[in-house]
Structures are given as C-alpha cells and as structure tokens.
Amino acid sequence: MAALYILIPVAVILVALAIWIFFWAVDSGQYDDLDGPAHSILFDEEDPKHRAGIEQADGRDEEKSDRG
C-alpha cells in the first residue's frame, strides 16, 4: 500500500511530462512536414549519376519517337 503513495504521483508526473513534450514538439514545428524527408531520400536529384541517367533515358525516348 505504501508503494502506491509513491507510484501514483510518479505515474502522473510522467504522463504530464509526456504531454508537455508532445505539445512542445508540435509547437516547435517537429510535425510540420512528415513526408518531405521520406521522399527526399528517394528523389535525390543532386546526384550526378542519377541526373546523367535521366538525361540519357530522355535522349533514348526522343530517338525512339523520332524514328517511329
């Protein structure tokens, strides 16, 4: 029974702390753009090899359409 006198206030403090951290994260903009970082790693256009591959593929597509 004595443990409840310690555990209940500790649990309430932990829940209050978790709620405060959540609202701090929302207010500071941590959840503003959830998709941007996930997509930026997939669509990295700054890589020269990637850019060269796209240009090469575009050139091939134009050659095929010119012949057809």
TrEMBL record:
Transmembrane segment boundaries: 6-26
A Pfam short name: FixS
Assigned keywords, A-Z: Membrane, Transmembrane, Transmembrane helix
Positions with biased composition (Basic and acidic residues): 47-68
Region Disordered: start-end pairs: 41-68
Protein name: Cbb3-type cytochrome oxidase assembly protein CcoS
Organism ancestry: Bacteria, Pseudomonadati, Pseudomonadota, Gammaproteobacteria, Pseudomonadales
